[in-house]
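Following up on my earlier message about alpha-L-rhamnopyranose. Here are the inputs again, as you asked, copied directly from the submission form:
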Amino acid sequence: MLRSPRTLLSVTSAALLVAGLTACGGTTKDSASNTGGDSNQASAAADPNAAIKEGLKIAFLPKQLNNPYTDVEVGGGKVAVEELKGEYKLVGPNDASASSQVSYINTLIQQQQDVIVVAANDPNAVCPSLNQARAAKIKVITFDSDASKDCRDAFINQATTQGIGESLAKMALEQAGGEGEIAVLSATPNATNQNSWIEVMKTELKKPEYAKLKLVKVAYGNDDDQKSFQEAQGLLQSYPNLKAIVAPTTVGIAAAARYISSSSYKGKVAVTGLGLPNQMREYVKDDTVKKFALWNPADIGYLAAFAGAAMASGKVTGAEGEKFTAGKLGEYTIGADGEIVLGPPTEFTKENIDKFNF
Ligand code: RAM
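Thanks, got it. Here's what our run produced:
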């Protein structure tokens, strides 16, 4: 499923969107940039023949630890670090709030890690520390949720931002039956990944085929199960005619499906978005959810570790067009703005869900 073309994908528009979003956020791009250079201005030339070093210290800092998605994601990272004969480390906060990751980055710098693989809870809040890490010769790879591109060396994107946003809009249209009110139940208000997907969705909704669909609200469950459940409940209280909830977060979609499946809205309000097959199976089987999408999170962690090792070994610098091999996933080419795209997402339905176990 995700083994398809590992091609170079240009995502300039998505990067621009993210840049636009960060400009509207609580922190500014200027406050984020300090010691670090531009990710495209490699300090040394890449040596495509360099051997991957053994014993590299590769640390993972996901958005939050208590999220089943994170477990799968960093599980793939751990497998990769073992294959690379490196030292794996996992640290992270229990909530995905904007500034929750800074102290972890500072500790990883003190520990002289070789690579930090981070999913940013806020594109700018982590930047000063990440740039301190880079000044200390630590390679910074973002995965899942990007940081501002001037404070990381490469970004492992799960699929193109454009592709994910389009797929969310399309599933919403289908599930709402072509018309009516829809709402988004997102993660945290600062999450780079969710915000960039929602922006693409909003642009899609301006197209004529979406004319009868109305986005009435973007709610935030903060990737907290209880809060997401309450937000889903609140959406139906405020918008009783809602036709669909679109949750671009595995935590949000599972909580929304749980609420709808046991409420009088079951069969009337569709739930779709991005989910883990193992968390969504029961709601697909009880017909609460007809279709949702995701990539294999384990592959993102796996790819991030290999990208970090290639960079820490001098094989790549993060410049467009450089290539490296990511173990069982094969060869990848670094795209514009240091972006490496895993592959297209998969759609899950009653027909195929039992083929997936993550
Ligand atoms: C949640 C997190 C994660 C996102 C997935 C889809 O688990 O917000 O960052 O990629 O959903």
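One observation from looking it over: Residues 225 and 255 are 6 Å apart (CA to CA). Hope that helps, and feel free to reply on this thread.
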